[in-house]
Predict the 3D structure of the following.
Amino acid sequence: MATNSDKILAVFDFDDTLIDCDSDAWIVKLCPGGHDVPDWIWEKHRERRYMEFFEHLLQFLHDNGVTPMDILDFMASVPYTEGMEAALKFIGKNSDKFDCMIVSGANVMFIEATLKAHNVEHAVNKIYSNHGRVDDEGRMHVWAYHKHQCTICTVDICKGALLSEYVKEQAQKGVTYTKVVYVGDGVNDLCPSKGLGPFDVVMPRKGYKLIEKIEELTPENKLKADVIPWEQGSEVLAILEGLL
Ligand SMILES: [Mg+2]
Ligand SMILES: [Zn+2]
């Protein structure tokens, strides 16, 4: 039987989901002279070692006179995917029914900068992402959230482990979720999607990797959750509205 503490958990990926681009590609635009990041730094990106890539990129920006303030201001100007700001505002307005979590392979500083810029930080209960800080010399650093064994996720963060950790933590506080709605686009969003049950919903973005990965699953590995593809955030909002 549903109790007052039963809620719906809306989970969002960040890159190419909440924001309509990849934060790596966005920040690279700050490089003096355009896209002239040295190839050895890009090599880390190709290897999906994103935190190593970023740490070197941040040093490169620092050496070229780009400050953490420049980076965060520029990050704050990143475009949200159409309808996503409205979806977060809807969740914020209905916080008695919804909790909201962001789980992302970007980093907490970037995510918080955009949430503040869109005035939606109050709508998000929990951000799981890589760590970031600015040191005494005014250089920004990022580092991996944790070590893990997952082979689907990137080396820095296992999204599935963190989603289950949050659900468990909340249960200990007496909050249980009748449904999880997971919105994402990338390969690493498959990991948390696999852990969801028949009452949950996975929303993969059309034209991106997650939907391909879901379609490639063999019948015995099919997701238990409902799969509802989306193109724009307004479709995500419509699904959330329909759950009230
Ligand atoms: Mg993504
Ligand atoms: Zn994982």
